[in-house]
Records
---
Amino acid sequence: MTRIALTSTLALLAAPAMAAIEGPLVAPADLEAELGSDIQILDIRAEGEDGFAGGHIEGAVNAPYGLFRGPAENPGQIVPADQLTETFRQLGLETDQPVVVTYQGESVTDFGAAARVYWTLKSSGFEEIAILNGGLTAWTEAGYALSTDAVQPEPSDITVTWDDSWTASVEDVQAAIDGETDTTLVDARPESFWNGQQSHAAAARPGTLPQSQYFVHSSWFSDGPTIIDASAAQSLAEENDLAGADGLISFCNTGHWAATNWFALSELAGAENVKLYPESMVGWSNAGYEMANVPGPLRSLWLNIKNTF
C-alpha cells in the first residue's frame, strides 16, 4: 500500500460515518443504528431537569422550541432570518448534514412543535430532515438509553436565507378568501375553535378564516403520539378531498397544530403546494381582518370570562 493510499484510509477511518437517515420520519431503531454518524440531533424540549437535562439521546444538542417561535403576543410569527442565522450558528448546524428533530412525544399536540421546527429548517435551506416518530417516549419504550452528558457544539458559519415556498402570507390568505385562487383554507383546530366556541388567549376574538373548513390535527394519529405513515396519510388525505386540492393553506391559532397538518399533507401524503400560515388566527384576528363564525357580543363576553378562569 502506498503512503497516499494509507493516509486516505486512515482519514476515512477517523471521519464520522455518513448517515443513512431517510425522512421525513425516523423510527427509534433506525436512529439508534445511526448514532455516532454525522447526524445532527436537535432536542427541542426545555433545558431543565424535566426536559433535556434529565436525559436525552446521546449527542443531541438542546434547541428549545421557543427558539423557533415568535413573541408571546404573536407566537406563530416567523423568526427573522438573521436571528435564525445566529441561533443555528450557535447550535453548530450545517445544511449539508442530516438533522433529526426529537421531542417528548407525550401527546399528539407536542408533535406540532417538532413539525413546526421541521418546517422552519426546510424553509431555511435544510434538505435532509427527519422527526423521531413518537419522540423520546417511543425511544425509551423501545429500550434505548438516554444520556445526561452535556453537548457543546462547535459553532458553524451557516447563513439562513428564508425560502417562502411553504409559507402562506396574509396576501395569500386574502386571495383565497376572495376567490382569486382555488386554494383551500384548512383549520387544524378542533371544531369548537372553528365554530367560535373557543379561542386562544392571545387572539382578539373567536372565529375562523372565511371560506375555511376544518380538519383536526389529531386525525393523523392512530397509535398514541406516533403519527401514521406515508401510505396511510395519502389515503386519509384522499378520503377527505385534501390530496387533490389546487393549493392548500394550513392554519390554527399560532401555527403549531397547523404544522402537523402541513407536515402530514406535504411531507407524508405528498400533496403539492401545501403552505403553512404561521401567524394563524392570533395574528389574523389582532390585525382586524375579516373573520367567520364570530359570536355575538354577549356570547363573546361569556367566552372571554370562561377562557380567563
---
Amino acid sequence: MTKFDEATQAIRVDETTYDVCLDPGYSIGGPLNGGYLMAVLLRAVVDASPHDHPVTTSAQFLRAPRPGPARVRLEQIKAGRTAAMTRATLIQDDTSFIETLVTTATLGDVAPDWTDRPSADMPPVERCVVLPAPKPESNMTLNAQMEMAFDPPTIGWLDGNPTGRPEARAYFRMAEPQDPDPYVLALAVDALPPVVFSAGARGWAPTVDLTWHLRALPAPGWLTLLGSGRMISDGWFDEEVEVWDSAGRLVAQSRQLARVGRG
C-alpha cells in the first residue's frame, strides 16, 4: 500500500457508512485539494459497488473540510447489470462538506472505436519546467505528493508574464512510485494550478462544482494534463482538463466551475 493509498483509505462501518481520515499532506495553503477529496469518496463508493471503476463523478464542494476524521455516507440510487449510481456525502461533525453522484461500471482493456487527438502539443518532458518548492509557511503540502513538469509558456505567471489565456499543461506522476489508477486520476484532474493564473489572476480559486469521467484504465508512466478555460466573467471561471496516458490514450476528462482568486 502506497502513502496515497493510505491517505485515501475508507474503512467500512456498515453498508452505508465508511470511516476516513483526511490527510494534511494534500493541502493547498490550508484547504485540502478537491481531487484528493474525491479520491477518498470514491474509495468508499467502489468498495460498496458491484462494479470496479468510477466512470463518472459529479461533486459539489459545499465547504472546505479540515484534516482529520470524517465519514462517507452512501445512498444507492440504482444498481444495474452494467452500472450503478450512488450518492456519496463527506461528513464532518454532522455537517455535509461534499455531495457527489458517482456512477460505477467495469471497464475493459479495449482499444477505442474512435478517438480525437490531444487538444495541445506538449514538448518532451526534459524540456518542461518544475515549479520552485513552496515556502514551508505557505502550507502547500500537496506539491510534495506528486511530480509535475510544466509546459514553460503556461507558467509565465510566475515571473509576471502570463499568456493572457486560461491554460495550464504539465506531465504528472505521483512522487512515490505508483502506477496510475482511477484514484490517482481523481487527483490528477484537479492537480494543475488554476488555468485562470495564466490569464493574469492570482490567489486561491475554490472549486464549486467538478465533474470528471474515467474513459480508460491508464498505462504505467507519466500522465499528460492539458487544461484550458472558455470564459472568465463576474468572478467565475471554468476549467476543462484532458488526461492522456503514456500510451497516448485519453483516460480522463473533467470540467469544473470555480471562483476567481482574491489576490
